[in-house]
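Now for a chain:

_____
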Amino acid sequence: MPHRPDRPLQTPRRARTPLYTPAERARRDASPWTLVQAVLAPLQFIAFAVSVMLVLRFLSTGEGFFAATVSVVVKTLVLYTIMVTGAIWERDVFGQYLFAPAFFWEDVVSFAVLALHTAYLIALYTGALDARQQMLLALAAYVAYLVNAAQFLLKLRSARLETAPRHATPPAGSMKYAK
């Protein structure tokens, strides 16, 4: 069919697999772990935001190492908690603890985040890194966390768009949708 100049070119779109099947969506909505994740995710972000400020303060002034250290440990404990409960949620919804196809890449990056946070705890415990190096490792873990958080936010947005009505009903008397 030839292109009509009064209409924009449209490329064919590949049909996307929905994030959740109807059965998975029902299991997600019924799982108590959905609420747990909804509470822990913003809690983890608050711990992250406070910790970033304390870590940056230490790196810029050399003061507040103890407070920065405690904040990274707290952030890491919240991370461990959200990882364990997230795996249980994934089992409830998708039937497997980790690496369900719908969240495969989020889980892969989550393990990198977990590895960096764990490396921080090991460095803290063993003294393998000095204070500045520990805080730089914490910042590296936080960058990975931000990437992972963005992945989950995009996935959440995608899931919401899937459930949004496809066509808006035009207001009464509107000519906008008239053909």
Summary: The chain has a mean pLDDT of 87. Residues 131-163 form the longest helix (33 residues). The two ends are 21 Å apart (CA to CA).
